[in-house]
Write a structure and sequence with these properties.
Layout (H helix, E strand, L loop, with lengths): L2 E2 L2 E3 L5 E5 L8 E4 L2 E2 L2 E6 L2 E5 L5 E9 L2 E11 L3 E4 L4 E3 L5 E7 L6 E4 L2 E9 L2 E5 L7 E9 L2 E11 L3 E6 L2 E3 L5 E7 L4 E6 L2 E2 L2 E6 L2 E5 L6 E9 L2 E12 L2 E5 L2 E5 L3 E3 L1 E4 L4 E3 L5 E3 L2 E3 L2 H18 L5 E2 L2 E2 L4 E2 L2 E5 L3 E3 L2 E5 L8 E5 L3 E3 L4 E5 L7 E5 L3 E3 L4 E8 L3 E3 L4 E8 L3 E5 L2 E3 L3
Parallel strand pairs: 2-9, 11-17, 19-26, 27-30, 27-47, 28-31, 28-48, 29-32, 29-49, 30-33, 34-37, 35-38, 36-39, 37-40, 38-41, 39-42, 40-43, 41-44, 43-45, 44-46, 45-47, 46-48, 47-49
Antiparallel strand pairs: 1-3, 3-7, 4-5, 4-8, 6-7, 8-9, 10-12, 12-15, 13-14, 13-16, 14-15, 16-17, 18-20, 20-24, 21-22, 21-25, 23-24, 25-26
């Protein structure tokens, strides 16, 4: 090729080699009407030149003592123009593919992300496919494309840290799903999916780089892993959310009722098969007699009890809890516990705060006793683990999930904001209100 390369920037400054004959003694080189910025006679057949600025296709002429002749054509190319097809971000490790579109890309010779050289493929004059290189730290970098027409550096790409999950509020809810939870963490802006045990949430909203609001999908009883995937990667918080049973009342041997009891939630028995007193009792849910749901709930009762009772106590309790204010923790009683008056549970502003009461023998509440929840405390996060049987006195207003090894007796007029779950024995009701707290 007599002009090599035969393309270059409109701004000039390109090194171009001219090949021909009789170049010795050359006195001038022109690109169109403009003289070359510089030229050097390498030998009689070769000239090394630097292009001036220009536009379009121009003849390249050489003047020697013997005259002037045109050796070829040089094509001035405009600088490339680039746009980054979304998404404009990705992981620190790179390796993902992005598409650059624009103009003047056919002669691309180099693509950089910051200072890092990227591999690329020229798809057409209007498109490049680029493999993003790795970066050392998160943050925005300029994407630079070098072509014969010049350099384009108008695009920014952002390297992202992987996300992290620190807490989920509320961190438990029904197996049916549907709860709105707040996921707190970092690097959430470019979130692409949120899953609970691999199941996509019903919907989610990126409230900020540190907060996602999500509607929980249905799941299986027990703990579930919560995963957040962003353009920067995926993080999984093992067992960060717990799916809770639909049951408000569950007996191991039987459930009996007298009077106009109202149950909000499911009612069941397993492995026993006896449920009596409904009606006149009313169940705002489903009645399960040793069916698959009741069997699963009974198994979950055992697993939940065993897990909670094995936790290391934070403090010991004894006697009567009336008049006390307790902050979140695991409380252990070697034998029986009573409640006369009001027990206050103070969450200190933490809606995930939990209380576990490990009671070695019986739980007995006096007439008109109550549990008061304050500062964000929720009944779903209060566990009463009763080593034998629980008796809730007349007019008691209890909050929490009562898990008894043997039986639970709820006397006339008592209300439970929670669950009454008896592993081996019976749940006995008498004109009560039991409301599942989720």
């Amino acid at each position: 090729m007599p002009v090599s390369p035969n393309q270059g920037s409109t701004g000039g400054g390109d090194a171009v080699t001219l090949t021909g004959s009789h170049f010795t003694g050359t006195t001038g080189v022109r690109y169109g009407s403009r003289p070359a910025t510089s030229f050097t006679v390498v030998n009689d057949t070769t000239l090394a030149t630097i292009t001036p600025s220009g536009h379009g296709a121009v003849p390249v002429s050489v003047t020697t003592p013997g005259g002037t002749g045109v050796v070829g054509t040089f094509y001035y190319l405009p600088p490339p123009v680039i746009r980054l097809v979304p998404p404009p971000a990705g992981p620190l490790a790179g390796g993902n593919t992005v598409i650059l579109t624009g103009l003047g890309l056919y002669t691309t010779s180099e693509v950089r992300f910051g200072t890092q050289i990227a591999e690329f493929t020229v798809d057409s004059d209007g498109q490049l496919t680029v493999t993003v290189p790795a970066a050392i730290s998160a943050g925005p970098v300029a994407v630079t494309v070098r072509a014969r027409g010049g350099i384009a550096d108008t695009v920014t790409y952002t390297y992202l840290d992987p996300p992290s999950v620190t807490v989920i509020t509320l961190d438990s809810g029904p197996v049916d799903g549907g709860d709105l939870v707040v996921i707190t963490g970092t690097a959430f802006f470019y979130t692409t999916s949120v899953t609970f045990d691999g199941v996509p949430v019903l919907s989610y909203r990126i409230a900020s780089d540190t907060e996602i609001n999500a509607l929980v999908p249905a799941g299986a009883l027990g703990p579930a892993d919560v995963s957040v995937t962003t353009l920067g990667g995926t993080t999984t918080a093992p067992g960060a959310y717990t799916y809770l049973s639909r049951f408000a009342v569950l007996g191991g041997a039987s459930v009996t009722n007298t009077g106009l009891t109202t149950i909000t939630g499911d009612l069941g028995v397993s492995p026993g098969v006896s449920i009596t007193g409904f009606p006149p009792g009313q169940v705002n849910g489903t009645i399960h007699t040793a069916d698959a749901d009741a069997v699963a709930a009974h198994a979950d009762l055992i697993a939940t009890y065993d897990n909670a009772v094995s936790q290391t106590p934070d403090a010991s309790i004894s006697g009567d809890l009336g008049g006390l204010t307790l902050t979140p923790g695991v409380y252990n009683a070697a034998s029986s516990i009573g409640l006369t008056g009001t027990l206050t549970l103070d969450a200190l502003g933490d809606r995930n705060a939990t209380w576990i009461f490990q009671i070695g023998s019986t739980l007995t509440t006096a007439t008109a006793s109550s549990v008061l929840l304050i500062n964000g405390a929720t009944a779903r996060n209060v566990l009463w683990l009763v080593g034998s049987s629980a008796t809730l006195g007349t007019g008691t207003a209890l909050a929490g999930r009562v898990l008894a090894q043997i039986s639970i007796t709820v006397t006339a007029g008592a209300t439970v904001n929670g669950q009454t779950l008896a592993r081996d024995g019976s749940v006995t009701l008498d004109t009560n209100s039991v409301t599942r707290p989720w």
